[in-house]
Design a protein that fits this description.
- The protein has 232 residues and is an alpha+beta fold.
- A four-stranded antiparallel sheet has the order 1-2-3-4. The chain has a three-stranded antiparallel sheet with strand order 5-8-11, sandwiched between helices.
Amino acid sequence: MSGPESEFESIFIKAASSHNAMTSILIGSGLVTLGAFACVVLPTLFFLPGVFIICGGIVGLIIGFFKLREPKHSLELTREHIIYYHRRGKWRISWENIQRIDVPRITKGMEQVDLEMIGFKLRDADIFLDEISPRLITYLLMEQRPLTMQNRAHNATTSRSYGADMIEDETFLRTSGETVKGVSAMFGHRMGKLRNQLGYDIFISTNEIDRDVTKFISLLKDCQDSASKPKT
């Protein structure tokens, strides 16, 4: 993108966690080979260390394998949308449906602490339920459980237990009056809960981006501003 006012092609963002997949595999392979050599060729004194080296190599291979399974890009920024890619699916949000983008903060004692997340507050959260893969919803319901525990002070003033806060109803009523069921309904309730607790509906980890958080949020806001201007 040459500037925020120009029409731009898609901008692709790589996840920091996906880097060095081949490096992990090469290191893992090397450790397995070295461990096997220690177990088979060297004296028995080196057998146990060789086993530990092999185990470390296997861990490296597994990490590299899962990194290779991740999409090449974690995010795509188009003129109309921000699109998130995951091996379990994807979601899409139109720029006009985003009310706020920032880093969520929580209170710990007397301090405000930034979470290692980027939050999106939506103008209409109902629309998002039609823009996310059901398989990804299932994954996010599990992954976001720690987020539901971030507002313990609020939960302590209610009759709900911590366990109850992690269980979502399987029926969700849209603002249009339509009833949604299943994992989409559960995610609709989850978005509402996280908005009440943290101020945002959708979250991505800072591990999903390839640059400084402040610069990335600035890029998103530039894209949003550009999308609101007529094409030239």
